[in-house]
Amino acid sequence: MIPKSHPRYESLVLRDKIVKAQKEGYLAESAMIAHGRGEAFDYLLGEKTTFPAKRAMYAAVATILLSENPVISVNGNTTALAIDEVIQFAKTVNAKIEINLFYRTDERVEKITELYKKHGYSQILGTKDDDIKYLKSIKNERASASKTGIYSADTVLVPLEDGDRAEILSKTGKKTITIDLNPLSRTSQTSDISIVDNVVRAFPFMTEIAKDLKTQDKQLLINMINDFDNRKNLKEALKLFKNK
Ligand code: ATP
């Protein structure tokens, strides 16, 4: 039990979630390394949601709300850290959720499918029995996608993604949105909208933004998207690390 008074309480709670998920068997061995890399970047950010992250989130939510078939791609880490927050966001913006694992095994997919069911979400895509197609006809696991999900999506939100997958997605012509604490990762660099923030803070924040933007005029959302410059925003995000 971590005492709430511990100066690194929040961070240790997240670590605990990753350790628990590892024991439950739905994370690959490398998941802890990915988490550690994220932790280090978050530490340098002061574990706070920055202004560039908020600006990217507004553009991201506006894009998702104007999309025909938006899909949120989830892996083991995102599930371990923010399952309820992901479900809440998906329901608020009417997006689908699809399982997408770097080291895909039937066992991990089944465990994650069960977890979403247990948390009240049974429509998850990318399951063992789903109809899987290959993006851009690239026959490798990193290009696999559910036929009714990412394969036919116009917008894909890929939190905590690896660079290979992000690159493939960006070549499909779909709008790609990422949540990645590293502004220099290939994922952040190749996405259309890169949110440099922790998934545990970003999802609840985006749900609040969505509740607001859903009541706004469509033209305001279009302007928000047109005014957003991902290159410029990523540069601003990077400067905040240097200023620490
Ligand atoms: P790339 O292949 O995109 O250059 P990478 O090799 O670092 O990046 P991975 O190790 O597969 O990619 O993925 C981990 C990424 O997720 C890292 O960029 C890390 O900063 C980020 N990350 C880890 N934990 C979190 C989190 N909780 N919230 C947001 N991003 C996170």
TrEMBL record:
Pathway membership, UniProt: Cofactor biosynthesis; coenzyme A biosynthesis
GO molecular-function terms, A-Z: acid-amino acid ligase activity; ATP binding
Enzyme class: ligase
Reactions performed catalytically: (R)-4-phosphopantoate + beta-alanine + ATP = (R)-4'-phosphopantothenate + AMP + diphosphate + H(+)
Keyword flag Disulfide bond: no
Enzyme Commission numbers on file: 6.3.2.36
PANTHER family per the UniProt record, alphabetical: 4-PHOSPHOPANTOATE--BETA-ALANINE LIGASE
Entry similarity comment: Belongs to the archaeal phosphopantothenate synthetase family.
Complex and partners: Homodimer.
Name of the protein described by the UniProt record: 4-phosphopantoate--beta-alanine ligase
